Amino acid sequence: MPARVRGLLPILLLAWVTLCWAGSHDWHGSVPGKARLRDNPLASDPQAAAAGAKLFQQHCAQCHGADATGRPGRPSLRSHRVRLATPGELEWLLTNGSLRNGMPSWSRLPEPQRWQIVTYLKSLQ
Amino acid sequence: MLQLVARRAALWALLVGALLLPAHAQESYFVTYSHQMEEPGNLEIETRTVAAPVRGGDSFLGGALEFEYGLKAWWTTELYLDGQSTSGESTVFTGFRWENRVRPLLREHWINPVLYVEFEDINGADKSLLEVVGHDGRTDFLARNDRSERKRELELRLILSSNFKGWNLSENFIAEKNLAGEPWEFGYALGISRPLALKASPRPCVFCRENFAAGIELYGALGDRQSFGLRDTSHSLAPVVRWDIPNGPSFKLSPGFGLNENSHGFLLRLGVSYEIDQVAARLRGR
Q1: Is residue B100 within 8 Å of B70, Cβ to Cβ?
Q2: Which chain B residues touch A116 with a CB distance below 8 Å?
Q3: Looking at the predicted structure, is the pLDDT value of residue B174 above 70?
Q4: B7: part of which helix (H) or strand (E)?
Q5: What would the mean pLDDT of B137-147 be, rounded to a whole number?
Q6: CATH architecture assignment, domain A24-124
Q7: B206 vs B178: CA distance, rounded Å
Q8: Could you tell me which of A98, A107, A105 has the C-alpha nearest to residue A22?
């Protein structure tokens, strides 16, 4: 391996580690103000909670339990923290995940489906 | 003789029997990767099969059985076992691949990069067509199966992917090097897809539009370090349809069409996958 390339390796490694550590442990404190204030566009949709419940069982129940009370090492979604979270904060968490803490990003779900899940989570509280 | 029959039966089980596995696919494409990672602790078993008639040669069925595990929410590792069967020739196991994908940025952005590193130990008979690089093309498939050629290769990809209003747009830049000292080879893959419905229906259903996604991918080669460019390269355009059965298997189907003389005229790809959630927790009995 050429010396020039070898010299770059520690820099690349350091950059990668820095980027990985850039994520916050506390998702709640990381939500931008604009996202926090977003309203749920489906809040008044009478079918949104039922659709969200279906999506929750398909995608979320494996970690958070079928009744959203959590599993060993995985948090309950009937918690005080989730109850206090705004719909915008929950949608932001679903979109971005909390990768350092094991919560995957659900950006692959279309935005309306993420709001349907938020509607369901809010209906549990 | 008996040993040969047993070995062929085992390989056919790998190629065809794997098609019968249930599935829950996440990737919308066959060649292109998006920034979608496996959920941590989940194991996805997927088979990717490609069949093609070869002008002037024998038609073939190539297959890869894939085990994808989410080590972390930002790190996915995969093992592939490759095999193929060529009409009038042999059915052979062609090698393995070990792939790792890492998301360096832990938030969602307009463009989300993923770093991809794969080590391949395959032989010259491999026909899984999981990527197209260098001067890969139709004529490579005219020769008889040659298992004597050993290919130990390093494949790197820069994956860039965006999700916007239900659409996914992914771009992959591929660099591959045979560790025997051959030059770097390059390729690309682009994909765009969208679910047929953005909102989920409230009732459980198998054939709802939300369970289907349609897209298209374009992939091809860009020559090598000594002759970079489009000359003597192959390119394909392939519509893709995905069907996810809720809490069950997923199916992907993609007819591919060659865009120039060097490309395979027609390729048919089929993918079937199934996701087993929280494998480690299950093994621990939790």
Answers
A1: no
A2: 199-200
A3: yes
A4: helix B2-15
A5: 83
A6: Orthogonal Bundle (1.10)
A7: 44
A8: A98
What token pair was written down for B20? 């019968």
How far A112 CA sits from the closest chain B CA (Å)? 5
Q: For all residues of chain B together, what is the average pLDDT?
A: 90
Angle at A117 between CA A73 and CA B25, to 5 degrees: 75
The DSSP-derived string for B98-135 is EEEEE-SS-S--SSEEEEEEEEEEEETT----S---BT
Give A24 or B281, the one with higher predicted confidence: B281
pLDDT on residue B139: 86
A93 CB within 8 Å of a chain B CB: no
Best of A27, A45, A54 to mutate (most B CBs within 10 Å, chain B): A54
Which SS3 state, helix, strand or coil, does residue B75 take?
strand
Using an 8 Å CB-CB cutoff, list chain B residues near A5: none
pLDDT reading at B140 higher than 50: yes
Average pLDDT over residues B198-203: 96
The percent of residues above 90 in pLDDT, for chain B, comes to 76
Interior/surface letters B94-132, b for 16+ CB within 10 angstroms, e for the rest: bbebebebbbbbbbbeeebebebebebebbebbbbbbbb
The domain segmentation of chain A, as residue ranges, is 24-124
**Number of residues written out for chain B:** 286
Residues of chain A with pLDDT under 50: 23-24
Task: Tell me how many helices (H) and strands (E) chain A has.
Answer: 8, 0
Burial of A60 (0-12, 13-18, 19+ CB in 10 A): buried
Q: How far apart are CA B161 and CA B215, in angstroms?
A: 14
Nearest CA in chain B to A64: B278
Give B 175-214 residues with CB within 8 A of chain A. Answer: 195, 198-204, 210
Phi and psi of B267, rounded to 5°? -130, 140
- Is the pLDDT at B22 greater than 50? The verdict is no
Q: Do B198 and A20 touch (CB under 8 A)?
A: no
Domains along the sequence of chain B with CATH: 2-283 (2.40.160.40)
